[in-house]
Write a structure and sequence with these properties.
Layout lengths: L12 H24 L6 H6 L6 H12 L2 H14 L6 H23 L6 H6 L2 H34 L3 H50 L2 H10 L18 H17 L2 H7 L5 H33 L16 H9 L6 H36 L5 H26 L5 H25 L5 H24 L4 H4 L13 H5 L16 H4 L17 H19 L56 H14 L1
Helix pairs in contact: 1-8, 1-14, 3-8, 3-11, 3-12, 3-14, 4-12, 4-14, 5-10, 5-12, 7-8, 7-14, 7-15, 7-16, 8-12, 8-14, 8-15, 9-12, 10-16, 10-21, 11-14, 14-15, 16-17, 16-21, 17-21
């Protein structure tokens, strides 16, 4: 009987058919879109889709690229165990989209960059750019390995397939269409995968409503179980999720993901105009709202079904990340092919994350290392180098997934990694864009200082996890289980749904230093604000005392302008074309971003001629 515990069914033949068909279909769509419009073998077309993308597909790709398998599986489990507070991230998505679209897009778009870290060399120096790129490569390779491993670990139980076979297959599919198709393949595949992810959530919710008796029953059960108490205004920074940690900390964390992370920036600078680039971020915001809402409802549906028999406490599963896969096989096993759709949804998230990461890693390597060392390399050779690097980074991410299998607390590490590394980088970018007095000495000092602090608190939190009174897990029951807990725990604890590596009460019983209950217990969402503020404040202070206010005037193209804010038709005047001093590839058509610098068309050429005639 559904919701009473015990083992559940595994994949049927039709589930395998649906799963394989969707994965292969995604790869086929990406490759078709890539090759159908390809006109030449150039690194720009491979890495940026020829800078001719439009807003809607880019927006769906932006949404899909960080809606990884970790999100598909982990977010419903978050609602099930901790309540609906996670939905407050909808506010964070709104703030993030506005900051990114109105502050960062105009600057990056105006400069016509390919790698986000080109800006660091323009604003500071070559060393700063190398450090920033290296931090990004390390962060992305590690996170991508986790994004491959974590869902595979949970979904292995559904399919019965070998874990390492699943990992290698996932990486191989991504390598194929990233290597052959480039960014255009990644974006159009992300569009398809986004639809599949949402369909997976809808299938779970629809069947859950039938099982429980309707949406009103789910809502009432969630209310009575304390799952709807989302509005916690406690300012305590040590509490895991409150209104302030999510809205303040979460906004900055997601801003660091979208504003300066190459995986995301590479997408919106591939748009043909700045209007499309900004619009893609606002459409993406709506996509994030829809995704987090469906994920939350899925989690509340799961609670309504298992409110009297928690599979985790009952020993039916061994990790919170297996809750949603367990639910799927419990309520959808009688519908051949539907569990296959869910697995495809989770793996679509993983494939999207991996493919976007591979493409972004190739872009920063080509721009920040290959072109810098061999500036005379031909476009055709760069194209082939890019394809080779796709294979290399795909293999590296699979290797990082193997490394992740040796780590405990993998999902918490995945949630924290962006704050620990992207936070300091975000502070460095804000120093460069907001303060003309910021100099190289101050920027590097602030970056290194903040990175040491965030790594200290982040690694400490992994070693000494915060106590339950700070993480606030909600109560669960096994009173309605068909079999009692002792029957599951008697003898071997290995069940078809149990895995190792899950923190237990023993994790908290070890001797804890005093710092573990304050500094190391800082909410993971504050890692990014900590890094950002320290990098910005230290960088500004050191810049001022080291002569930053006396340095030569900074090129205005590198700073945020008032006219950049809330402006969709900024084409009244052409800026100074001094970016060409840093980038020989610049063709002089850098008119304030109304049209992408690399997107040349008749309309834009006419506009430039008319502007010159007006000045005469």
């Amino acid at each position: 009987m559904v919701g009473t515990g015990g083992p559940v069914a595994l994949f049927s033949v039709w589930d395998y058919v649906v799963f394989v068909a969707i994965v292969l279909g995604a790869a086929a769509i990406g490759l078709y879109q890539a090759f159908s419009g390809r006109t030449q073998s150039s690194s720009s077309e491979f890495l940026l889709g020829g800078r001719q993308m439009t807003a809607v597909p880019v927006a769906m790709s932006l949404t899909a690229s960080f809606m990884s398998g970790i999100t598909v599986i982990g977010t419903p489990a978050e609602a099930y165990r901790f309540g609906a507070a996670f939905w407050l991230f909808a506010f964070a998505y709104t703030i993030m989209s506005t900051i990114t679209a109105e502050i960062f897009v105009p600057v990056f778009y105006r400069l016509g960059i390919t790698s986000t870290y080109e800006y660091l060399e323009m604003r500071f120096n070559r060393l700063t750019r190398i450090i920033g790129t290296t931090m990004y490569i390390f962060q992305t390779a590690l996170y991508t390995g986790m994004a491959i491993y974590a869902p595979a670990l949970a979904l292995e139980q559904i399919t019965g397939l070998n874990l390492w076979g699943v990992l290698v297959a996932t990486g191989t599919v991504c390598i194929i269409y990233c290597t052959l198709g480039g960014l255009k393949a990644v974006i159009w595949t992300d569009v398809f995968q986004m639809v599949v992810m949402l369909a997976g959530f809808v299938a779970v919710i629809a069947r859950g409503m039938v099982v429980t008796g309707g949406l009103h029953k789910i809502w009432n059960d969630s209310y009575n179980g304390g799952r709807l108490n989302a509005w916690d205004f406690d300012p305590d920074p040590l509490k895991r999720h409150t209104f302030w940690t999510i809205v303040v900390g979460g906004s900055l964390m997601w801003t660091s993901m979208y504003a300066i992370n190459q995986s995301q920036v590479q997408r919106y600078i591939s748009c043909r105009t700045m209007v499309h680039a900004k619009l893609s971020l606002y459409v993406n915001m709506v996509g994030l709202w829809v995704t987090v809402t469906l994920a939350m409802i899925s989690g509340l549906t799961m609670y309504s079904i298992y409110k009297n028999c928690d599979p985790l406490t009952n020993g039916d599963i061994g990790a919170p990340d297996q809750l949603l896969p367990y639910l799927v096989m419990d309520i959808l096993a009688d519908f051949p092919g539907v569990p296959g759709l869910f697995v495809a949804a989770a793996y679509s998230g993983t494939l999207s994350t991996v493919s976007s990461s591979i493409n972004a890693l190739v872009a920063v390597t080509v721009e920040d290392f290959i072109k810098a060392l061999w500036p005379r390399t031909s476009e055709k050779l760069l194209f082939w180098i890019s394809m080779g690097l796709s294979v290399f980074f795909g293999a590296l991410c699979i290797g990082m997934a193997a490394l992740s299998s040796l780590m405990g607390g993998i999902l918490q590490a995945a949630l924290s990694i962006f704050g620990m590394i992207s936070g300091p980088l975000l502070g460095l970018y804000l120093l460069g864009m907001l303060f003309p007095c910021g100099n190289t000495t101050g920027g590097l000092t602030g970056l290194i200082t903040s990175l040491v602090l965030t790594l200290w608190v982040g690694i400490g939190a992994q070693i000494y996890p915060p106590l339950p009174e700070k993480t606030l897990p909600l109560s669960l029951s096994t009173d309605g289980c068909f079999s009692n807990l002792t029957q599951h725990l008697n003898g071997s604890t290995t069940t078809p749904w149990s895995i190792g590596g899950t923190p237990t009460a023993a994790s908290y019983s070890v001797e804890r230093p005093a710092i573990a209950d304050n500094w190391y217990s800082l909410s993971y969402l504050y890692f990014c604000p900590l890094g950002t503020l320290v990098a910005l404040i230290f960088g500004l202070f050191i810049s001022i005392i080291s002569g930053g206010c006396k340095q030569k005037k900074v090129n205005p193209d590198l700073l945020i302008r008032k006219s950049d804010l809330i402006c969709f038709t900024c084409n009244k005047e052409s800026p100074q074309l001094s970016v060409a001093d840093w980038k020989e590839k610049s063709d002089g058509n850098l008119a304030k971003g109304i049209s992408n610098p690399a997107f040349k068309n008749t309309e834009r050429n006419i506009q430039i001629i008319m502007e010159k005639m007006t000045r005469l």
